[in-house]
Amino acid sequence: MFILSILLGIVAFSVWCIPFALPVWFFNKSNARWVPASTKRDPIVVRHEVATILVILLVWGGVMSLSGFGTAQFSVKFLDDGLSETIRSYYRWATVVGVSLALIGLVIAWRYSTTFAVAGLLALGLGGGAALQSLVSDQQTWEWKQQHSHDETENSERRPTTIRFQLVDNIEGADLWINGVHLGKTPYETTDIELFSKVKPWEHDERREAEKMGGDERVVYHTPQGQMLTQWGWCPLHLHGVQDSSNLYYRVELNGVSGYSHVSSQESVGPSNSPDWVRLMTLDTVFPAWETSIEELLDRARMNNYEVDAEWWDAFESYGSFASQRLNGALREEPQLKQLLMRRAERKVQLDSVIDAASAWRVLMEIEAQVSQAHEYHSESDMGLAVDFLVPFLDEEQLVNYALIAMKRWPRADLGSTMWTTTGFGTYGTAGTNHGTFGGSGHGDEVGAWPIAHAVWRLDQRLDAASRPTLAQGDLNGSLETWIDPTTDNLVERRIVPELIKLSRENSNAVRYAGVLGGSAYERFVVRHNWREPATDPFNGNVRIGVSEVYMNGWFHKLVRLDSPLGTEFRRQQKDRLLDIARDAFDENSIMVGSIPDGVEYLFLDSGNAGNRPSLAMQFWPKFDGMMHAVPEHSRQEALRESWTYLARMWPESTEEMFAKSFADAAENSDYIYVPNFPDDFPASEQFKILSGVIESEEQRVSKLPDDPEEQRYDGPKHRAQRGLSQLKERLFELPCIESAELLVTEMTADPKHSWRGRLQGFLAYDREHEDLLRLITNTGGAELQKQIIPALETHPIPSRRELLRKLALHEELRNLDTSLEDSVVEEARAAEARLKALETKPLTEMHLTELVAPQSNDDQSEETDGDAASAE
Amino acid sequence: MLTLARWQLRQVNYLNWVMVACVVIWSMFTSELISFIHGATMASAIFVHAALIVLILGSSSTSGAGFIYSQGFSRDQIWCSQALALLISAAMPCVAFLLTVGTGLRALLQEAMGSPWFPLLGNSELSELKWMLLAYAAVFSTFGYIWIRARQPSKDAAAGWMVAVAQIAFFIYCWTWMRFAPPWLCNVLVGTALLLIATTTLALWKFHQNVEVQA
């Protein structure tokens, strides 16, 4: 059998070699009549041919080696870091064989025949390449099966997975328990097999039992920011990709101090299928003492109107990722903290030296150099904020000229992994991980183009904001191009965008950036493309609308989203088609009840700007409203939420009556309905206007309803309507606007038994935005209410709130005081003021991160945690 | 030598004019972007045109070649006239391209036809001329070597063919890489291609003197 295989192999190889041998035969035969048989090869001919083959082999082999084993700087690396060691060894052996064959080929060409050398190299090279490809493909298939197979037989032969547990900032020396078993100190590395040999899975009861043994005060930790951070004393641990990983719970102690955890993040690092592949578990454990100190530092910043100095930063950054995570979390509800980010950027990039265009340019060039080295950039990072700061100082012409040069230097700058969000763009992080030397960059120096692109983008926004609004009036019956007005182009749109479009010949991503900048060149470019062809598949740049098989021609999609006279006119002309697409997208999306599919944002673009014409959203509303009516009863809540979101996006074209009708329809047809939230960026005063209208309408409706029969006293139509009405009023009071505050204070002062008197303190405890309400209560609310707002004034001590606190403490200019409570208000205000004063004068050097110290005894521990922790009860 | 070159051109004029006509029509009316690197049309057309010309002028196996060699011209004169004829053959489509693109005719026509790229691109496609010339040089030198090598009083006559196969494969490899390679690598590849063209052309010059003619 073996001999037969060898023979078959020889026959196959001979057949394979025929195409390479035929020319040899042909030319040698045809040459026979020219050249005497005894003639030797001319040495110059030999040298030329060997040199040619050598050059080809060197360059070809060099490029292949770089693409296989080169470094990122060369930007031609194709071999994925995740390839297994086996596949890498194939490539290595292929390289060795290739080099050997090349050497043999050169010797043959030199000593005997160029023809045979090249024919042999071609035959073996092509055959070997195909064989290598086949081997790699088989190996990859086998590896994939190994990774994804859950078959027990195969699993028994499975390689163990290395798991590494670490804390934020890779803090060392913390004790780690899993399911009651003390495993060791962080960073702790084990394998899944070893872990399950030590740890037995817990059922729910076993976990609860363990928590009781640890004392209930551990169960819930209220952070200084009012978050209930930890729901479990033993935090669930889910190891993705590891079998039997459910029912695992972990706990961490550092220096004997319990940490509180919420979730754990995990990532895989290192080349897969290699011994270096590790599942990295980063536990988000926090420690109350440190959290309190971080909050105190933030309070110091608040007291100082978010102005902080280097000493503050030194203290804050001593908490490492604990502080930065807290800051990022707080930004969502306290946007004023962005000032801190700007200060941090100044600290990193030395922005204080920027006084004019020249100094700003110098700093921008430094940023470009740093980013090129780091291979990482995002417009919302410190570097990005620094660029935001620099743009107003920069010389516009200089920036634009440099950007044009940068486009030539890095014509493919945004290929590869890039990300775009609604507010920024940049490259993915490539700086590697904390675990050894993994990571690396898929990007080269071209990342340096990103800060320049970011600066140009900001410049375009500045120029757009400074220019007059575009009022182009084209020919209603003529070409769409008549709606393009080149006279309104700014510097960026005039000079950068045309070059970007030219660049898009070799880098299609350039069109996306051109679209961000806009301008007449981009509009003309888009409108002249074939946007008329209907899209039925996701290819050729077509865009998926929603979640199902509804597609839009890519150029049509670009035109539809234009925020310009051309865009408005295009949407007007294509109204029927756009409504059809929206209808199909909503129909296809029906499985996700009421959710507005991605890609139909065009419906809302002209709301309020379409002149006397109803916008697309208004025209589509009857269809949308009908769909919301058709949802099953259990989905009415979601349908109402989406209806209000839709109407809010249409506002002010939508009316209070439309909101009221949606609410009434939903309330009539379901047992219980919540008042939905408005979109986050919807102004509170507008919400007040809408809710007032809805309440008025609901009151009228309720008044017309007959009384519920006795057996339906708690679930009859009238009762349900009244419940909805009271919810609407509650929501009205919660709005952070002056109208709402005035109404609430008026009602509370008029009614000593007002329900809000009981919930005011809880509502405002960690408040960041009800300044009007606090001011009104301080000035006119009466002592009982004033007493309730003191914690809110203390927990968020910005200057305006400290002023209110001082007013309460000094008891000046206050009206409507209740003398019986007067003393306690003053006393509590003064105590709060004193605590803030103490915090204000506390030396920042004492606020640096300190070692955690375990309490002496259980009693001490209880006392210590009283301030920060509370039981679940 | 001009007379000789004109005589050489007579053999390929019909091919050249067909190519010129193709270039004019294509460059005026194609709505696609003209790109040697990113499109295959131009590269394929040049390959076919150049290969046919070399086959006719350079193979030294036609009756015309035998006639010329019998008329008392020196080998240098014959070779230089061939080279001049090849050069003129390559120049004709290039000049046609220059006239249609460089003068803005293409841009005007395309803009009138509603192409999205014009007038934005203007005559920037003219930069493709350098690739056209490079492609002609690569094919002329590589294929020229096949027949010159085969007519050498030297063993291993098929070597020219095999070297040509290797070189053409390498040029195609470079052409493919140029689409996505970083600039430094593009420079390396173009530099190598130029080196191969130069050395092969030098070899052609050196070896033509030993050509054995039997037409």
Q: Give average pLDDT of chain A, whole number.
A: 81
**Percentage of residues in DSSP E strands of chain A:** 5-15%
SS-based structural class of chain A?
alpha+beta
Please identify the structural class of chain B as seen in this structure: mainly alpha
Whole-number radius of gyration of chain B? 19 Å
What is the terminal separation of chain B in angstroms? Answer: 22 Å
How much helicity do the residues of chain A have?
Answer: 40-55%
- The pLDDT mean of chain B sits at 88
Low-confidence stretches of chain B: none
Largest interface: A-B, 54 and 53 residues
Q: Strand portion of chain B, in percent?
A: under 5%
**How would you name the oligomeric state of the polypeptide chains in this document?**
heterodimer
- SSE arrangement of chain B, N to C: HHHHHHHHH
Stretches with pLDDT under 50, minimum 5 residues of chain A: 151-155, 415-419, 428-442, 860-873
Overall spatial form of chain B: globular
Distance between the termini of chain A: 79 Å
The share of residues in helices of chain B is: over 70%
Number of helical regions of chain A: 33
Number of strands of chain A: 16
Main sheet summary of chain A: 5 strands, antiparallel
Task: Name some characteristics of this structure.
A: 873 residues, 5-stranded antiparallel sheet, B: 215 residues, mainly alpha, 0% strand
